[in-house]
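Narrative of activities, Objective 1.

The group set out to show that a structural description can be obtained from nothing but a protein's sequence at a throughput compatible with the screening campaign. Below is one input-output pair from the validation batch, recorded exactly as produced.
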Amino acid sequence: MKFITTKRVLLEALNITGRAVGGNKIIPILENYHFLITKDKLQITGSSLEVFLKTQIEIESNINHLVVCVPATKLVSIIKELPEQPLEFEITEKRQTPTEGQKLGLLVRILTLRAGKGVYNITLENGEDFPEISTGDSIQFEIKSSELQKGIDRSLFAVMNDDSDNPLCGVSLEINNTSATYVGCNGQVMGNFSHGVEANKEGQFILPAKALSILQGLPMDETVKISLDDKSMRVQVNDDTVMEFILTDNKYPDYKRVLPTNQDKTLMINRSEIIGAVKRVSNFANQVSHTVRIDLQPDKAIFFANNEIYGEDANEEVACEYSGPEFSIGCNAKFFLSALNKTSEPELYLSMSAFNKPILVRETKDYTDPLENVFMVMPLVIGRVNQQ
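Output recorded for this entry:
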């Protein structure tokens, strides 16, 4: 049983699927690539059990149907060091040397790779032992990869950095017939983004962070097909590549309950100027709380931070459009910057209502839904930071 391909084609497929390999040390079979050969097609799958990445390539083959598992690290380490050339693979069966008490050794499959003057023999694992992902009735829609990546980018940064089953460790994806809304929140900062879709059903799902980090690597401006059910997500990238993910089995908190809708203090401020000011002033903030105070006065915002331990402080004034009453609010500079850095418009709109209510950041003054396309930063009690 033989098949032939080239280094470039095979290595590209191994790199695509290899992003899911090696993430589960408990199940040894997942340290392998799953090879499914059907005549002139080779489908390669890598999995961590939560993530399944599949792609197929064309090959020259005399094999009608074969399923095997190939040790991932060993195969890639060989392929990537070879010069560009045709690669010939042959699969044979061989009996191992019997151990004490055995009459016959175990029958194993060997993958022989011939490249130039090199011959490499790799012991294979049983392909039938590789896990599969099952899907049920699903929500289906098509989307530009650029829109998907923007939704991920504006929500994934705000998830909790944890490996637990806490729903806040993933991104909420809410689908209705006309829109998709992504929400990431860790209790201190929230990112929210919506765009239009045409879906056949409605539903809400929690997408794990690892899956989303992989989806961020999709080619730009591809049209991808997405299917979602209660347990899994399937992303059809093109005719050859499929990504499948196990969803977080939990209920996402009702984030809309904490989003204020009647903010009466709004200012317009230059994006680069506010980011620069907060970065500079935050160098003088307490290294635990990272507290920065924002003082609003007519047509200006003053950013202030101090560190009582070292007796240091800093303040910086930034011009803005603001005509409301004088007002002060504190926030964590790291979380505030994480939200500001996800914006792209030259002018930003910040709205507040009270010192103990969230700060909302938008990129447009006019909006139809106050709960969409908004960043939220929770306030900090400013206490002694008030004393300059």
